[in-house]
Design a protein that fits this description.
With 69 residues, this protein is an alpha+beta fold. Helices cover 54% and strands 20% of the residues. It has a two-stranded antiparallel ribbon. Helix 1 (22-34) crosses helix 2 (39-48). The longest helix has 14 residues, at 55-68. The chain is globular and about 30 Å long. The two termini are 22 Å apart. It comes from Caulobacter zeae. It holds the Pfam family RHH_4.
């Protein structure tokens, strides 16, 4: 996997920066397109359901779960 790429997203009215490998960003972009939502809306959905898990980890797990099923 490549080096981390940072993107800024707005979550619950707060700007936050999220660093993921390009492959995970590509997977999340595909998922957002499939679900007809913006990448910000998808990440907000992941954020709401992540519990205690760090957001970057939750995004990676979500992408892997969606890829597998």
């Amino acid at each position: 996997m490549g080096s981390l790429k940072k993107r800024s997203v707005n979550l619950a009215g707060h700007a936050t920066s999220l660093a993921l490998e390009p492959e995970f960003w590509a997977a999340l972009d595909r998922i957002a397109k499939q679900d007809a939502v913006s990448i910000a809306a998808l990440i907000q959905r992941i954020d709401v359901g992540r519990g205690e898990r760090p957001l970057a980890s939750a995004c990676r797990v979500y992408a892997l779960q969606r890829a597998g099923g």
